[in-house]
Amino acid sequence: MKFGIKHINRVSVTATVTLTAGAVLAGSAFASTAHAATPPAPKIVAKGGFLMNDGTGKTLFTKSADTRRATGSTTKIMTALVVLSQKNVNLKSKVTIQKAYSDYIVSKNASSARLIVGDKVTVGQLLYGLMLPSGCDAAYALADKFGSGSTRAARVKSFIGKMNATAKSLKLKNTRFDSFDGIGNGNNYSTPRDLTKIASKAMKNSTFRSIVKTKSTKQKVTTKSGGYRYMSWTNTNKLLGSYSGATGVKTGSGPTAKYCLVFAATRKGKTVIGTVLTSTSEANRTADAKKMMDYGFKK
């Protein structure tokens, strides 16, 4: 009888040990799964960064997200937003390209859509010239067209006023514009968070969305003599075609701004949108954006 009891106890102990080991293994598996579900936040080169879920507005990543910085040509997102926000805006309305626009490009050594004096270019085409090759001549033409006043200087001032009024309506406290293209006079700034909010607002416009996701375009414009020519523009945003689901938005650079990028992508119905400011190179701003979006899609 004693032998039998000892045998039963030994079986019981063995079973307990086996069960306990199984529970530990199962617990480890759960712990591992839980750990994997929270990826480490990315390390980016840019001095400032912000990412949010565009559907919910939830913040996904921040790095000095509210520090004011120069924005370079990412300013042109607001330029486009102001144009597209005009009541009954006619995208087929034609604008005659002035010598002042090309002189401005030369004097500022600015990025150009290569608009030709005397050509008649539609507002819609100017928006492509603004957002794809980042044409400061296109920005000037749009500011001149949509600003109010009897002189070009007055119209440009009026247009920049509309840019600032739009920023105010979006409740952006860390954004100010003193130019239509980002080539400011020391008082043109925003933050990663604010720029992302501007882009989010702009991306709600179907025309804007269509333009900024375009890799390249060829546009037929009317010449001074009444003939026509084709303008070919390629998007400076390298994310398009290289990052799955990328839908925009705008590059920027400058002596103070360094390298900037406002970006967005959609995967499986989830859209993330964000900004990096003051990165160190074109390659690094693109890599920063990819890291942030990869992280955002996993959260």
Automatic annotation (TrEMBL):
InterPro entries reported in the protein's UniProt record: Beta-lactam/transpept-like (IPR012338), Peptidase_S11 (IPR018044), Peptidase_S11_N (IPR001967)
Any single GO BP term: peptidoglycan biosynthetic process
Keyword Hydrolase in record: yes
Residues at the active site: 73, 76, 134
Residues the record lists as binding substrate: 250
GO MF annotations, alphabetized: serine-type D-Ala-D-Ala carboxypeptidase activity
Entries under Pfam families matching the protein: Peptidase_S11 (PF00768)
Segment forming the signal sequence: 1-36
Domain of life: Bacteria
The entry's keywords: Carboxypeptidase, Cell shape, Cell wall biogenesis/degradation, Hydrolase, Peptidoglycan synthesis, Protease, Signal
Domain Peptidase S11 D-alanyl-D-alanine carboxypeptidase A N-terminal: 38-278
Family that this chain belongs to: Belongs to the peptidase S11 family.
Protein name: D-alanyl-D-alanine carboxypeptidase
Native organism taxonomy: Bacteria, Bacillati, Actinomycetota, Actinomycetes, Kitasatosporales
